[in-house]
Known about the structure:
The chain is an alpha/beta fold. The chain is 39% helix and 28% strand.
Amino acid sequence: MYRDTAIPPISYSIDKTLGVILEVWRGGVTAADLEHYWEAYLANPDVLEVRRTLVDLRGAEIQFTGMELSNLVSSVVIPRLNGRDWKTALVVKQPVQYGVSRQYHFFAEQYSTDSIFYDPDEALRWLLQQGRERSAGNRPSSKE
């Protein structure tokens, strides 16, 4: 069950100048935490407009399984994106964080272009290079 604490385990801010969402995970993060977060996050029209996220996992202790992550991508993220694409730069420090990031990459490949980094500056540079070339926000068709 989601913990209602003063400091949530996942938070974000939107840098409108850069056109990037800065997301930070800290402490123990459960599947319920992630579900609660994604439901609120993906209900924000500003988030859905930007769709470029730098996710800093370095302070997180992952407390969910690959199966739980897969289920959340399928049941929460994909329906709310409704065909939109996403760009994600994941910043990790520990092997478990890297492994979960690789799992996310696999589960989200139908909507997300992402890359994993150990250096947040490199992650931001990569993310800024991704641009917003599809203003409509849809994935490319097979004809492109």
